[in-house]
Request: fold
Amino acid sequence: MNSRGCILIVDDEDDLRNLMAKVLELEDFTVYAASTPQQAFKTLAHKPIEVVISDVRLEIANGLDLIPEYKQIKPFAEIVMLTAYGNIPDGVNAIKRGAFDYLTKGDDNVRIVPVVEKALEKARISNRIFQVEGDAPLGGFNAVIGESPALKSAIKLATRVASSDLSVLLTGETGTGKEVFANAIHQASKRKSKAFMALNCSALGKELLESELFGHIKGSFTGANNDKTGFFEAASGGTLFLDEIGEMSLDLQAKLLRVLETSMYYMVGSTKEKKADVRIIAATNRDLLKESENGRFRLDLYYRLSTFVVDLPPLNQRGEDVIILAKYFVNQAAQRMGMKVPKLNSSLELALKQHAWKGNLRELKNVMERALILCDGQEISAELLPPDFHTVEQGASLVRPNALVDLASIERDHIVNMLAFTKGNKTKTAEILGIGIATLYRKIQEYGI
Reply:
């Protein structure tokens, strides 16, 4: 059975230490024990300890004085102090000194286990924030940022299918991070040394999409002045991610189905078959089964693609993840812009948690980059959020539960803000936004900026 987490118990009373260890081991925690501070420090340095349970009154040391030493060795470990029965001042003092919580000697597992679980959750969130704020690049499932149960469930499913060659269908609302998930699956697969290529099926017309997928030969249509390699060939041995698969035309769906069934395809204009050696990961924000019932998506293709379905949760169902992601986006944007990284104050964090996030991660990224640009001080406050976050009613909640703003409007406003920030420098704007200059020009034209 997998361990639920690593706990260190520091107490010089053998019976109590052993009893508490037994209680936690029965709950599937991995438990290490130490009777002296020296033993505790050694264990912390060499074991993946996440929570320390330490007696306040050790024979050779004051447990409260050890809190900063524990933290120095394991900065993200949470400390739970053990106090004598009825000694509330010790517990309160422990929390003031940096402990997560305290337990009274004699508490049973009804009290012990929930405290340890909450401490573990806090330790993991703190560690995750440190990872995403660091300079080390994130890859594979490490790039899927968050600690919520809903996200963990999706990661668990994706991890299980990653090592196979099965087709995967990623479902969920727009902006939930499907391409990041697809790339993570690729990086965890046996194909990771080969190409990962992504193609948005909604961004191209039928003929152009067919040419991009399968390639074309010279003279196959007007403007085909040279042979062109398609995505199936370019991704050979690797993974092809087809985003917004529900937007693909029915006749092109038939050709994709043939590739999935036979691993063979034709370049546009060619009569010579070519072999495809790619893994397909598709994504959609539509209900493809309902689309097939309405004649807009082939049912046989749906069953081929949906061998393994991973549903990605919307941001408003991911709890504390919104804060972890907000800090990550601020850190990334600050690095790109050469700015100092400000803190998020409590009013901002409350507003972020209460927002509906109809645009999911994409909306959050835009909102935090906008707030960073407007920030003049050491921290970002709720006042720097877009107007749609604020209510006009006196005494009402800071954030509307359902902000009726479409994603395109948010994206347009964000591009306008970035252009203003760079004084119209489109090259710099594209760099900050993390998109190509051609994409920026297309969006400027599309939004009439």
Q: What stands out?
A: The chain has a mean pLDDT of 85. The longest strand covers residues 78-83. The chain has three domains: 6-133, 141-311, 315-447.
